[in-house]
Design goal:
single chain; Rossmann fold; seven-stranded parallel sheet; six-stranded mixed sheet; 13 strands; globular; binds 1,4-dihydronicotinamide adenine dinucleotide
């Protein structure tokens, strides 16, 4: 019997790519919605699930899928999957660890440069035919200090690019590679030291029980006054209250956010007029609307990964992950199995 793979959050173009590359040995199901928006009975018999980050794969779902053997997430982060339950049920979880270190790093600089040169403000003004320079003076990156929290694949790419701009770089990471630090010309510093010295702080570590809210009301006052804050990693790495406080009090002169707490709920904004909207959804919506009103904040809709080349690499790695698992030589296993 052919195994069934259920893909969620796929566009028509992605479906076309996957159908072509995965071969004819599987029954394929495609859903454009997230997994929580599709009735379980429609895919309950699937052996393999493939999701993106807005599909929350919860304990109960894993338990209810009797034939499930693999969850292939089409992302680097896997905090949307209950790894503990997958491990308990011997369901392997695989991810796409490398596909766009440069892609996310480039978006990080798109956010940094937009803020440092006020591109976002200028764009809105020139649309109104206002070509005045008032209030648009930016600052040079050259000579400033960039603090990278999490110097892994993406963080290291950010560091390499930073050197091209003449930035000094300091990094905070639990794992330290002094050879790389010497080669790329940066130093590792404790978190508090990084916060107090950086003109720009950029987050690049995963979200887990150790990193969640690593920036909070407890340490936000340690940040150098007037620093820029960039988050392309995960929204919950900074406590939302601390982010608002820092922006309102001038601790952060600006923020470039590709991710923020509750972003997955905001996606459902157009369904919010229905009854019984949970309080946390309204809260997420409110937070986003407050951020949107701030002139010194740029929000992008979790798109740092989204380049033509990176998406193709994600899909191809997912195909390879599924085929490798089927040949009993799984790759990029992050849990379960
Ligand atoms: P990676 O695993 O190569 O690097 C993460 C680094 O964080 C590692 O060096 C690790 O030692 C460090 N780290 C882990 N725990 C830490 C802690 N408690 N304190 C300090 N450092 C710690 O991951 P990669 O590929 O660089 O991705 C980083 C994150 O970026 C992902 O986990 C994901 O959440 C996010 N991401 C966002 C995307 C977007 O579209 N916005 C796309 C891809 C990734």
């Amino acid at each position: 019997m052919m195994k069934t793979i259920a893909f969620f959050e796929t566009t028509k173009a992605e479906e076309h790519f996957l159908r072509k590359r995965i071969g004819k040995n599987f029954t394929l199901q495609f859903f454009q919605e997230t997994i929580q928006d599709v009735p379980v009975k429609k895919f309950a018999k699937a052996e393999i699930l493939s999701v993106f980050i807005y599909s929350v794969v919860k304990k109960d779902l894993i338990r209810s899928m009797k034939h499930l053997s693999l969850i292939a997430t089409r992302s680097t982060g896997f905090n949307h999957i209950d790894i503990h339950e997958a491990t308990k049920r011997s369901v392997a979880v695989v991810n796409v660890p490398y596909y766009g270190e440069n892609t996310v790093a480039e978006h990080t600089f798109a956010l940094i440069l937009s803020l440092s040169r006020n591109i976002h403000k200028a764009y809105v003004r020139t649309l109104r035919n206002d070509f005045s320079l008032e209030g648009l003076r930016g600052f040079d990156l050259k000579g400033k200090t960039l603090g990278v929290i999490g110097a892994g694949s993406i963080g290291l790419h950010v560091i390499k690019m930073a050197k091209g701009f003449g930035l000094k770089v300091i990094a905070y990471d639990l794992k330290q590679n002094h050879f790389l630090a010497d080669t790329l010309d940066f130093t590792y510093e404790p978190l508090d030291e990084l916060l107090s010295r950086s003109d720009i702080i950029s987050l690049h570590c995963p979200s887990n029980e150790h990193t969640r809210r690593m920036l909070s009301m407890k340490n936000i006052r340690k940040v150098k006054k007037g620093a820029l804050f960039i988050n392309t990693a995960r929204g919950d790495l900074i406590e939302t209250q601390a982010l608002h406080y820092a922006l309102n009090s001038g601790i952060f002169a600006g923020a470039g956010l590709d991710v923020f707490e509750g972003e997955e709920l905001v996606k459902e904004e157009n369904q919010m007029l229905s009854k019984n909207v949970p309080v946390e959804k309204l809260h997420a919506l409110l937070q986003k609307n407050i951020l949107l009103k701030m002139e010194n904040v740029i929000l992008t809709p979790h798109m740092a990964f989204d380049s033509v080349e990176a998406v193709e690499r994600i899909l191809q790695t997912t195909v390879d992950n599924i085929l490798a698992f089927e040949k009993n030589s799984p790759q990029f296993v992050v849990g379960g199995g």
